[in-house]
Please model this.
Amino acid sequence: MSDRFRTDILVAGLAGQGVLGLSSVLAEAAAKGGHAVAQTGIYGAAVRGGVALGSVIISDTEIDYPYVERADILVALSVASAHAASDRWQRDGWLVLNAADVPQWTSGAADTTRFWGVPSALVAEAQQVGTEAVTAVFAGAVLALLPPALRAHCEVAEPLQRFVVAGQRQAHAVVP
Model:
């Protein structure tokens, strides 16, 4: 049995929602922890109202292909982006979205998806500060969902740290 670990994360959202910022925060946090990281962004159609995608691969070994084919964690900053990216995500993985959006996604869902809704009040508080704070809340949630060996040394810089910690606390309340 191998002790190696790797987590593929796909971030999906509409233009201006902080997709690339969130991908960058996750990649930087993992890189500071000494992990191998690959980050890519696809946002061409987003400027016309389409979905932007950001991918982050975090591993303890060299990453030979930098694109996420099947994400372990899909972070959807809107319901529309969750649907648009659903073909690139493992159905037994995590779907992270605003708690207010979970009922819209789960209606009729008959799969093994594990949902985590970032509390709407926390998202609203972060929105008052700006897109970077919302990004940090979602980053905190994602970092909490990572396998313990991956999240052990991840670091996020101030001034976003308080929102990352808030997101982690909320996720730890529901994630074993």
